[in-house]
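ingest -> validate -> predict -> emit
validate: passed (alphabet ok, no gaps, 102 aa)
predict: started
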Amino acid sequence: MTYGPDNMPKPHIKPRRTHLSNYVFKLPGGTQDNDLWVWVDTRTEGGVQSTVLRSCWVPSVAQREAIAEGCNIELCIWGEAHPPVSVNVCSYPLGKAPSNDG
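emit:
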């Protein structure tokens, strides 16, 4: 558990696999709990190809209650450079996508 400047406990919101996940980052020596599933979203717009790595993070019940009561979301970036990021709300179905094998 980590603590913020307000001395409140900050349990981590958990990343989850979704039906759109098509790549997994694995922590060397880690377990399945350390996997970060992402959707590698590659698009071409105006002749320019771009790639966005999208991951889905699921708050606990207590975190959802805190958000509903007015708490904010904190984005932490390790290091000294801040990459382009965004934080959104999504409703992708969680878990492995159903198989199309009859």
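The longest strand covers residues 36-45.
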